[in-house]
Write a structure and sequence with these properties.
By secondary structure, this protein is mainly alpha-helical. It is built from four helices and no strands. Keywords: Iron, Metal-binding, Oxygen transport, Transport.
């Protein structure tokens, strides 16, 4: 059973971004299920690689959208994207040297989801709505 379920409270109203956020929730739920089943380091690695691929695609799309709507904090948001990508890469590097506990990775994923969608992304969508009005 999924630990995070998509609902209207997570929707930004921008279909492409919402679809990508649903993919992120899928990554987190897949990881959670694998963790519960005790699948270990291989699953952690696969999950983080999926997250990195997701982030590359999502950030590129999101940054293009922010540029189109003239989002005033685009550079700040790009820095946040780079920080998150660096953290993901650090976690991947960590897998080569030490296996982080699955719970630690799970907390990272859920925190990232909440911070990114409910924090940054809603600000972008709010700006887009204000500029249209």
């Amino acid at each position: 059973m999924p630990t995070i379920i998509w609902n209207d409270l997570l929707a930004t109203g921008e279909p492409k971004i919402d679809h990508q956020h649903m993919s992120l929730i899928g990554i987190i739920n897949d990881f959670t299920e694998a963790m519960k089943a005790g699948k270990g380091a291989e699953v952690i690695d696969e999950c983080l690689r999926g997250l990195r691929d997701y982030a590359d695609t999502h950030f590129e799309c999101e940054e293009a959208y922010m540029a189109r709507i003239h989002f005033p904090h685009l550079e700040d948001h790009k820095r946040e994207h780079q920080r998150l990508l660096a953290e993901i890469e650090g976690r991947l590097d960590e897998l080569l040297n030490r296996q982080p506990p699955a719970r630690e990775v799970h907390v990272f994923l859920k925190t990232w989801l909440v911070d990114h969608i409910l924090g940054w992304d809603f600000n972008i969508i709010q700006h887009a709505k204000e500029t249209r009005e």
